[in-house]
Amino acid sequence: MNKMTGEKVFVSWSGGKDSYLSLLKAREAGMEPGNLLTFVNKEGCSMSHGLPLQLLKNQARALVLPQVLEPVTWGEYEDSFHRVAGELKLKGFTGGVFGDINLPEHRSWVENACSRAAVNSYLPLWGMEEEDILAELLQRNAELLIVALRSDLLAEKWLGTILGRAFIQELKNKGLSPCGEAGEYHTLVIHGPLFKKRLEVKFSGYRQVEKVSFLNYIL
């Protein structure tokens, strides 16, 4: 990514590995990430990862970054993004950082949505090899808790474990996306660069929603 010194940006934030590495790369490119933007469902959990609000708030505090938690439905998502991006623009934000890697339809959505809101879009992971992304995260000592997975594709024993080489090998053996680009699994970053303290996560068992198993959190 080219140096964009001083540009104030928000980070599209899932709480997981891809948005986290995008945050790190944006800072290293000279940007000033000033807000984590997360859309949550009406039940108060993040849209894909199923993370409760309190956990997301604790994570933002550990990173010492402000956040916006915006309740939406999938049908309201685009209009809500446009409205929130406009509000952030009025506060001096000129761009957004996104963790998309290789899905053209995702990049197209991001670029169109940001263009509509008249803010710049940055995708610092775009075009990277998925295994390289995981290798870089592990090299940076990021601790990635596996918080959801497709139970028709992966064994539930991995839920609640820290992503490591054994899990990556399991994905490769099964011919699955190393970064879970088709929703095979989701992570929560609990420690690494920028964290002032390790995020404490308590859980007991898991819950099933269609084909996806999510950790049950104790708050």
Task: Describe the protein's topology.
Elements: E1 8-12, H1 17-28, E2 32-40, H2 53-63, E3 67-71, H3 77-90, E4 95-97, H4 104-117, E5 120-122, H5 130-139, E6 143-150, H6 165-173, E7 185-191, E8 203-209, E9 212-217
Helix pairs in contact: 3-4
Number of helices, counting only DSSP H or I runs of 4 residues or more? 6
Report the major sheet: 5 strands, parallel
The poorly predicted ranges are none
Strand content: 15-25%
Number of strands: 9
CATH homologous superfamily designation of the largest domain:
HUPs
Percentage of helical residues?
Answer: 25-40%
From the 3D structure, determine the CATH topology of the largest domain.
Rossmann fold
Radius of gyration: 17 Å
* CATH architecture grouping of the largest domain: 3-Layer(aba) Sandwich
What is the rounded distance between the termini?
A: 38 Å
Q: What class do helices, strands and sheet pairing give? A: alpha/beta
Q: How are strands sequenced across the largest beta sheet?
A: 3-2-1-4-5
Number of domains: 2
Shape: globular
Name of the level-1 CATH class of the largest domain: Alpha Beta
Mean pLDDT: 95
What pattern of helices and strands is seen along the backbone? EHEHEHEHEHEHEEE
Short synopsis of the structure:
This protein has 219 residues and is an alpha/beta fold.
Could you walk me through the main structural features you see in this protein, from its secondary elements to its overall organization?
By secondary structure, this protein is of the alpha/beta class. The chain has two domains: 8-122, Rossmann fold (3-Layer(aba) Sandwich), CATH 3.40.50; 130-217, putative n-type atp pyrophosphatase, domain 2, CATH 3.90.1490. Helices cover 32% and strands 24% of the residues. A five-stranded parallel sheet has the order 3-2-1-4-5, sandwiched between helices. Strands 7-6-9-8 form a four-stranded antiparallel sheet, with no helix packed on it. α3 (77-90) crosses α4.
